[in-house]
Amino acid sequence: MAAGPPADYSALIMDERPVTAAQAPASTAAPAHIAWHEHAIFALLGVGPGWLLCDALFLQIPWAQATQPEGLALSSWMLSAFNAANVVVVLLLIAHRLWPRNPRELDEILLVALILATVGGLALAALLWQVATERHSVALLAFAFVGGAIGALRLSVMMPWMLAYDERLISSAVLGGAIADGASAMVALVQQPGGVRRFSPSAFFLVSTMFALPSLGAFVAIKRWYGHLLQQPAARSTAPPTGTAATVGVELEQVAVKSASDKVGARAAAPKRAARPWLWRAVRLWLVFAFMQSLVWGITPALLPFAARNAARGSGAALASEDVLSYAIDVSYLGLVAGSYASLVWSSYRLAPQVVLLVACAAVTVVMAYAGQPLLSARAGSTLLVGSTALMRFMDGYATAMIFRSVSADTRYGDAQQAVQRAISLAERVSTTIGAFVAFWLVGALMRADAAVASD
Questions:
Q1: In the record, which residues are listed under signal peptide (predicted)?
Q2: Which CATH code, of 1.10.10.60, 3.30.470.20, 1.20.1250.20, 2.60.40.10, is assigned to 35-233+277-455?
Q3: What is the tens place of the pLDDT at every residue in 96-146?
């Protein structure tokens, strides 16, 4: 485990040394060591208020696109439903404005509601996922909307709530959500929704429901038995100064009084400083996170079915396109688990290499989706597609945890920490929405190209 609070993620962008809790005047007392069971309880908490419902739906796309009316465009339609739910973030902002008591109480209520919504959504999906009209998969799109609402609120609710705890536990919570996604991916690997189809999506959704249930118990346990992890204000002595310390205190006070008028004049003559010196740092994090999320969750998921189809068309084809798509999706979630775990045991704040690698991985999917002819053999193309998707999700899991940890650890944000974290969360929603619109247009172009080829 990396010792001590991490540096500000944006320090590598601005080339400045961050001010962490270890360097600032002591105002909080966090445990120097966090036991494994404390990491585990926060990992369990991270399962429920997250993307488990959305990801479970996405894992079944190889099956659903073969049986539902949208076909290869199903992924794009589901992404649109995911992102239509972003309106709940606006409702959250209004609720925080109107909430008459401590905002933390509202966040706790919403955390429980998100956990229950995840469990309920997965259970209902097991019963109703096949409901569709002649043109659209009504049930899948409705559950995608609910899952998108849960995911939209996840970072906006959970991360500000976790500011009261040691920032290392943020990685634990992110890891918990990723482990649940990875466990669902393992179940999907056994199921083979794009090929063998050993059991139905209904059974898959029921198993995924079991993964979400412990999250509610973890929340109760944290409230009842893990209060010692809360960062409390450091105690200050109220005893009067004595001896030499008292003399020094009096002298310092006299010096301060003597120079007070000089300081007032100096302030008047000095140039005005920004009221929010952290603002540009936060904006840069906002922009970087938005760009990364627009690629990972906005554009590439919609193009992945087309890339898998083209990869399977290469020479020496041994797998159907549904098999390639299934492996790419399943292994990508294992990459997400690995990235989230890496953020817990190794802290690196070099942002530029991560962004470059992520763009390169996303480019593989885009190029393969638009390639008129297979660029590689089926084996090489499928391997490249699966590997690039897994690496992209690895960096997503790592970077998400580290960005929010950097805000939690940097004392320069002061009372604005919650606002900054919610703003970064909003960046995810805005960017994935824009990415979904772009993806919808790209998928439309691909569908028109397919129709033109078929007519010829």
A1: none
A2: 1.20.1250.20
A3: 888 878 888 899 999 999 999 999 999 999 999 999 998 899 999 999 999
